[in-house]
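dumping the sequnces here before i forget
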Amino acid sequence: MMEKFKEWYEKRHDYAQEWKNKTGGKVVGYFCTYVPEEILYAAGVLPVRILGSHEPQDVTEPHIFGMYCPFCRDCLAQGLKGKYDYLDGIMIAQSCLHIRQTYTSWKIHKPVDFSYYLPMPNNVQSKRSLPYLKGELEVFKKAVEEWTGKTITDDDLNKGIEIMNTSRALTRKLYDLRKESNPPLSGLEAMYAVVASQMVDKKDYNETLQELLEKLPRRQLENSSKIRLMILGSEDDDTEFVEMVESLGAIFVVDDHCTGSRYFWNEVSSNGNPLEAIAARYVERVPCPSKDWPERTRIEHIKKLAQDWKVQGAVVIQQKFCDPHELDIPAIIKSLKEEGIPAQFLEFDVTVPIGQFKTRVEAFLEMLGEEDLY
Amino acid sequence: MRVSGIDCGAKFVKALILDDDKILAKGSAASGFDQKASAQEALGKALKEAGFSMEELEHITATGTGKEEAAFAQTTVTEVGANAKAMSALHPSVRTVIDVGAEEGRAIRIDDKGKVVDFAINEKCAAGAGTFTETMARALEIKVEEIGPLSLKSQKAVPMNAQCAVFAESEVVSLIHAKHSKEDIARAVHDAIADRIASLSRKIGLEKDVALVGGVARNVGFVDSLKRDLQLDLLIPEDPEYSCALGAAYVALEKAKGG
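..and the predicted 3d for all of it:
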């Protein structure tokens, strides 16, 4: 039922190439979810998120410092190894400097037709960030117009907003189903869906998900007494880890990752000036930890997720050397514990030591389910 | 009621036989490439000492990294759960259990009912575990059993940064070149492991009483360093390397009684 998402995720390059052949359109790879895909959709350009492959590599050492996160190295390796040669453009919005280094290095060593650095403000809590971002989006829109040779009208922008919002609303419905006491989908399936949504044309994604949402409520997964977990932290599309945890009698019911819920949580309110509405969405969205200051707003959001999805325990992961998350994690773990939600911290790399992590997850689940066990 | 707990560790398999609360026998075997055979061997030794056959055991519970390999066990429990079980039964006042084995260091916090409240396990690094002392003993050209007593004779503390077992070996070599005594280097090694284990324990919030288990608890040099670092007394059970096996045996006992 949900195999399509897995197929898109695993054959992301085939999909993008076929899309190009079919439509004759341009594809832009992006490195961070602060990139306003609405404007690319308005221009008829397909945005695809660049993610790593979870395979060891040896090509990035000359370009990225060893203590930058493994995710940014894995992404760069994909470019250097020619996996994304079909891209017509690459872009990033300012979030953290590790992934920005990937963008910069890619631009130098794998030149593409169009490359764009969008200076997304860091202090999104400042009142001045909205007018600033609106101004930057105007400049970005012009750059896309010049590149594609096509004027982007307000009508185009509204269509871009609509397709993105539909996708967000549908994915939210999928997540809402996970609130049930026996969710009709596993955390692994949800991960495939939300990550695939970042790799394929939203039109295809929305159609497939719409169809699925009609059937899914009637689906029953066996073993209804699973321990309900949430997973949160750095970028994460480690399907092998999720699969391992869910094979031990647990189920992930919700997440807070930029590859997961943070990607689609907030919609663009579609009244008024479209560029301003888009800018407001990115300023007000659930933030990346690199932008969540001076106030830490994400903690309340995470606590609410844990409550609404009836979470029993949290797996907190961090890409090794991911500084923004390193800064947040102690505060998040403390707050979760105060809510009576134990948390287990794990450090991720390009590949995870699945055997060692299994030992730790088993002990964590045993601790969570102790009353039933003895 | 006769039951057994078997702990398939990274270096050794330990088996323990209980008759109700009474420990009847223990047996261990090196964890070879064939973990199944090692598990059989350890249990076989314990059974021989106890003087009966595997069929006479009501229940067997396995724990440890290789617990799936003990195919004859009916149930399993994690090392964290087993340690909590064993220490809360032996010393009900214990709130923190520190377990240092060959390749893993663990700190476990338990409540007054023996329930696990929190735990932490070392990241993929052997610098806070027993294998580290083996490597260091080799660099000092002494037997691993000698490194503990040797370090107690140390006259002064020499700082050493044990971030990685392999790099620490080269650091030991530089200490040798700097003409530090063997005794002082031995202590530096133990201080370094104690540092790692102490920070792991502080991460989960160290609470008294503290028990130290696992094979490395037999190393007097390490125990001395850890006590100095934590500034507390440590409860060390008899045969500390059998703590997990004992906990697993208690779980087996509960299962056999229909718990």
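The longest helix of chain A spans residues 154-177.
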